[in-house]
Design brief:
alpha+beta; Alpha-Beta Plaits; 4-stranded antiparallel beta sheet; globular
Length: 170
């Protein structure tokens, strides 16, 4: 059998991803196609190169609106999940979320972050009619308030710095 390149593990070894913590999640569209915003060139003033002053949700494509609606109801299905902040970019999304234990010390339903992401992708795929997502996702366990605030600001500023984003494609 041929030797295939080894993938770098994308989850922290021996960490319980259903434990109480704050997670920063990034999920990309397959082949980083720009499917989640309307045609970006339609939103740029020809001579200035700046985006037209519109509310953020008006730039979402039909697929982006489905993603937005799905993220906004995650807490209705998982009472132990709190979505602090998220942003939908043309070809990826960032979500800052937490699993919070109930007063008994354990969530009533203890989903892992992988379960939440898988279910979210599934709901979106069913509504669209085909999958737009790459196979996996990136996660980062937020370790302190300083890191939380830095990620919060990154999510907030991401749309205005799209052209310099590491996921940017024309």
């Amino acid at each position: 059998m041929k030797n295939f390149p080894q993938r770098k593990p994308n989850r922290l070894k021996n960490f319980d991803y259903s434990s109480e913590a704050v997670y920063f999640i990034t999920i990309c569209v397959k082949q980083r196609h720009n499917l989640l915003w309307k045609n970006i060139s339609d939103l740029v003033e020809p001579d200035v190169g700046a985006t037209i002053g519109r509310p953020y949700n008006e730039i979402l494509s039909e697929y982006g609106q489905i993603v937005d609606q799905t993220i906004s109801i995650i807490s209705e299905y998982y009472s132990c999940i709190t979505i602090y902040k998220y942003v939908i970019m043309p070809n990826h999304i960032h979500v800052l979320m937490a699993i919070q234990n109930e007063t008994s010390g354990r969530p009533l339903v203890a989903p892992t972050i992988s379960t939440v992401v898988q279910q979210m992708k599934g709901v979106i795929t069913k509504q669209i009619g085909f999958s737009i997502w790459q196979k996996s996702f990136h996660d980062h366990i937020v370790r302190n308030e300083e890191e939380f605030l830095k990620i919060w600001k990154y999510i907030e500023d991401n749309p205005t710095s799209w052209s310099s984003d590491c996921y940017y494609t024309d």
